[in-house]
Amino acid sequence: MTPILIAEPDGSDRKRLEVAVKIAGCEAAFADTLSSARESVGELDAEVLVIGPTLVCDAAFDLADRLQRASGVATVVAAANVDAVLLRRAMRAGVTDVVGPNDTTEDVASAIRRAGEIATRLRCAVAAEVEEAHKGKVVTVFSTKGGVGKTVIATNLGVALASMGHKVALVDLDLEFGDVGIMLGLKPEHTINDAVAGFDRLDAEMLAGIMEHHASGLHTLLAPTLPEDADIISAARVGQILDLVRENYDYVVVDTCPAFTEPVLAAIDRSDALYVITTMDVASIKNTRISLQKLHQLGYNNGRVRLVLNRSDSKVLLQPAEVEQAIGGKIFACIPSDRIVPRSVNQGIPVVTELPRSEVAKSLMRLAKDAATPVSKEAGNVS
Length: 383
Ligand SMILES: Nc1ncnc2c1ncn2[C@@H]1O[C@H](COP(=O)(O)OP(=O)(O)OP(=O)(O)O)[C@@H](O)[C@H]1O
Ligand SMILES: [Mg+2]
Hints:
Blueprint: E1 4-7, H1 11-23, E2 28-31, H2 34-44, E3 48-51, H3 58-71, E4 74-78, H4 84-92, E5 97-99, H5 105-134, E6 137-142, H6 150-163, E7 168-173, H7 180-183, H8 192-197, H9 204-210, E8 212-213, E9 219-221, H10 235-248, E10 251-256, H11 262-269, E11 273-278, H12 282-297, E12 305-310, H13 320-327, E13 331-335, H14 340-347, H15 351-354, H16 359-371
Parallel strand pairs: 1-2, 1-3, 3-4, 4-5, 6-10, 6-11, 7-9, 7-10, 11-12, 12-13
Antiparallel strand pairs: 8-9
The protein binds adenosine-5'-triphosphate and magnesium ion.
């Protein structure tokens, strides 16, 4: 354990607390003031702070509160006088224990030991929170229907997010027939197979080398070039690779095949936003209804699942409201149909780059902005 920091200027009080620290089996370090205690906690990486009687005041409780929240430091207050007001103040500040003049040195030592245990738990929680906050946001584009525009949307989302200055990776989980590379005009010199084959050595640097880089700044982890190569890629490996990608990028956009395959479920599991793509034809509507029911059964939270109507202005005698009724879900965003889309697909240049002023590009940019906003946001229409 790191040293226990005793904040107390008075020699005899300091001695009493030092003895207790020794009985607790720890090393002691000292500070004379609250401000030097604050500095020393950081320098020593102390897990437990003991505030002595001379320094017990509102500022001491504020310090205890701040240190606990920011660094998982547990504080024991050794007060000259313990009353209800002080106990309430200590409780509000998250102080681990309060000891008074009538407590034995052994009691103080036990309070310090307990504080050490609590600090270890607090630190784990703080570390987990920091790790979660640093993980990239996963945005998956999904539909069980082929040809509805998943890859068009995923590639444009990736390029749009990269053009906003974010560090973005696009992972092609249409492992047999992925065409992210074709739509972005990239040559697949490396694919996800290289990440799988070299997984034991896979780190951030190797991952960056396996990614194909697009002119927009987007990095892509492409699907295997041969469909049979997909067979060796397990869902567990896909999950591990996605976790590594998340650690190294702000956003991870995932394109998928038209089925609930195990690798796709590994991506959905990690998704902060899941865009379910539908079009206005009866087969797509039926598939989407069933997919949403399945996602619901699998326990995926509705706030993360967002329905996107692609080719929303198609002349098919159906209105978006009828589509919503038939699917049983609210449309979150609409993307119009435009001839420039197949043209851009054939050229390997995403519409958000080629024709950013077109309605279709603008709607894709809005979707990218939505993907970049915090997850807690409830579903609403962004079209
Ligand atoms: N908004 C749009 N306007 C016009 N054409 C579109 C639009 N969105 C997609 N398309 C066309 O639809 C075709 C299929 O799109 P895409 O390949 O993205 O679908 P997909 O869902 O990824 O299909 P698959 O499941 O086979 O991978 C493409 O040729 C594309 O040009
Ligand atoms: Mg596709």
